[in-house]
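Changelog note: in this version the structure field was regenerated for every chain. One regenerated record is shown below for reference.
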Amino acid sequence: MNIQDYLNKLGQSARIASRSMSATTRGDKDKALEAIATELIVAKDQLLDANQRDIQAAIENGIESALLDRLELNQARIEAMAEGCRQVAALPDPVGEISELSYRPSGIQVGRMRVPLGVIGIVYESRPNVTIDAAALCLKSGNATILRGGSEAIHSNRAIAEIIAQSLASSGLNPHSIQLVETTDREAVGQMISMPEYIDVIIPRGGKGLIERISNNAKVPVIKHLDGICHVYLDAEADLKKAFDIAINSKTHRYGVCNAMETLLVHQALASELLPNLASKYSSLDVELRGCPKTVDILADFTVGQATEEDWQTEYLAPILSIRVVEDYQQAVDHIQQYSSAHTESIVTENITTGRKFLAEVDSSSVMVNASTRFADGFEYGLGAEIGISTDKLHARGPVGLEGLTSQKYVVLGDGHIR
């Protein structure tokens, strides 16, 4: 069977499964999630054996250590995957919720009901835990899903997919509700993103190259973000301790994540006092600094490279930070508007008016006052979990949780009403 026929078969099965999933009760969905969680623990030895095959192949192919760490499963990670399923099961079910129900002058009642999107295709790299995260969220939100993980995790993903299928069947749900693309052929991705008759939305999770390819070529709507060029602006009226703590945490809590700060903007009124203290701390953590001419002058006692135009446009995902000293609030906002990837921006200020102005004027998926950019996360936002972060304005924006995997339709209640 060629790739097109294989994907069409998966798509047909997923479309059929989506119809039954949309009407599945919360109890049945939660039962399936609990079954998956239990079976992950029971089958941990098989999962670890499969993962070792992936690890060995990755080592032989010279995969870098950071990617190898993402690929690896161990008992703690398997237990975390199982706990993740249970946490999703405990979340409120958004499907079927009716809101804004009101009477119209005609006597009818009009409201909006939350419904699943249908079939969600998810393309991702490296981490086999994404297979469980994505499956759990799609299941809970009443969607069918087709998962296409990276070739480097194929044995792990197959083992996880088998557990999911068995758990769905034992719970009385259609096992085709969650399907894994089992071929490593790259053509499979191209076929998935060209199947609007079977797939309602594509969610890519991975490197910029993968997301750009999907965004540029997809015939199916895409929920995605390309870059996480996040900014923190330290305002003239910032509390110095808050400014210091947020600037350090936003950059150094974790480096290779999309909500890490990549550019620090500092008001000139604070720069001479605050920047040396920040530079000292960054240096102790081996963070490479690149600055504007004013920054370089202020930090003459530190090793600071000259920031280029490319630096302001770069998501480092590494211990590298660009710093710019700005003349005033407006110059900071202008910089963000020019270079932001619309992911997350934060202002540190004690001036409530300035903070509210920042919230209104900065158009990113998350905008913060006196908080680290590292809070831009579905769990931290109370969503329970997330499938990813969207910097688009349609259909979902910011961390995408259960509600982001649903849509709304109008419902009308009458009693023989005619117009």
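Spot check on this record: The mean pLDDT is 95. The longest strand covers residues 109-116.
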